[in-house]
Amino acid sequence: MIKIGQFNFLKISRQSTRGTFLEAGPLGQVFLPAKLTPSYCRPGDKIQVFLYRDSHDEVVATTKKPRVEVGGVACLKVVSVSRVGAFLNWGLPKDLLVPFGEQSKKMEVDEYHIVRVYEDNTGRICGSSKLNKLLKAETTGLKKGDAVNLIIGDKTDLGYKVIVNQKFWGVLHNSDVYQDFKYGQSIKGYIKNLRQDHRVDICLKQPGAIGDESLASKILSKVENSDGFLPISDKSPPELIYKTFNVSKKVFKAELGKLYKQRKIIIDKNGIKLAN
After folding, report:
1. Which of 126, 130, 146, 269 is paired with 33 by a 20 to 30 Å CA distance?
2. What burial class does residue 194 get, using C-beta atoms within 10 Å of its C-beta: 0-12 exposed, 13-18 middle, 19+ buried?
3. Distance between CA 184 and CA 163 in Å, rounded?
4. Is 76 exposed, middle or buried (0-12, 13-18, 19+ CB in 10 A)?
5. What is the pLDDT of residue 210?
6. pLDDT of residue 18
């Protein structure tokens, strides 16, 4: 089925100096400008194109890749505001309209907003930042340890709200946060826990990974290989701790405390060293 707002494989019916005409079933023929047509294409070939409505409301084709398709979620920049809504840059000549009625809060130029793209009942492609009505709180089809794609949402007292695989809400708890994230940032993660209420907790390291060296062993090994002194302590920035040990500052501090109580290390303001 041919869909507007998504990529489709269409057959070339004819070509001219202006561009290429593609067979699009019930939509008739759609036009692809010559500058966007691959040089190797000939009538009868099938090529992958994205279909959308131009400023004249005609369906046209492009080989450019937008930042998001219909049904998808992305963080986009507001480039203008008019009497009908805000327009966001989604990588195509015609900007994406977010009607005022689909804005969770009023959008202003140069702001970034996470939106889901949809086709309205008139066939127009629009965006909505009212994500709570579009995304599911309860997950299906996922299991613990699954790798997932995440979009960082708002920060809360618990951590970060995250959008999982562009479909579900999840939570990345503070205890699993190794660094600061930006609103709308895309990252990889894993399913940490599927709760009884069918909601999901996220972590950034695969749970129960086989063959992982213990954190205590990693810390002692790093100190030993640094001539007995490692310039990282419980006062170090979270980013440095994560880069070195791939854990959050909270987890690192807890492990340091255990090693200190076991009298295996000495902690000072500049770093840690092996106890004699």
Report:
1. 126
2. middle
3. 9
4. buried
5. 44
6. 93
Domains contained in the chain, CATH given: 7-62 (2.40.50.140), 73-132 (2.40.50.140), 147-203 (2.40.50.140), 215-274 (1.10.10.10)
What single string gives the DSSP state of each residue in 49-108? EEEEE-TTS-EEEESSPPS--TT-EEEEEEEEE-SSEEEEE-SSSSPEEEEGGG-SS---
What is the total residue count of the chain?
Answer: 276
Q: What is the CA radius of gyration of the chain?
A: 25
Per-residue pLDDT at 244 exceeds 80: yes
pLDDT (mean) for 96-115 = 97
Q: Mean of the per-residue pLDDT values for the chain? A: 89
Question: Which residues are within 8 A (CB) of 189 and not within 5 positions of it... i.e. 6 or more apart?
Answer: 147, 148, 149, 150, 162, 164, 172, 202, 203, 204
DSSP letters for 172-222? EEGGG--S---TT-EEEEEEEEE-TTS-EEEESS-TT-TTPPPHHHHHHHH
| 180 or 129, greater pLDDT | 129
> Phi, psi at residue 224, to the nearest 5°?
-60, -40
Query: How, if at all, do strands 265-268 and 85-89 pair?
Result: unpaired
Range picked from 43-52, 129-138, 174-183, 239-248 for highest mean pLDDT: 43-52
Taking 50 as the threshold, does the pLDDT of residue 31 lie above it? yes
Question: Is the distance from CB of 67 to CB of 90 less than 8 angstroms?
Answer: yes
Q: What amino acid occupies position 275?
A: A
SS3 content of the chain, % helix, strand, coil (to 5): 15, 40, 45
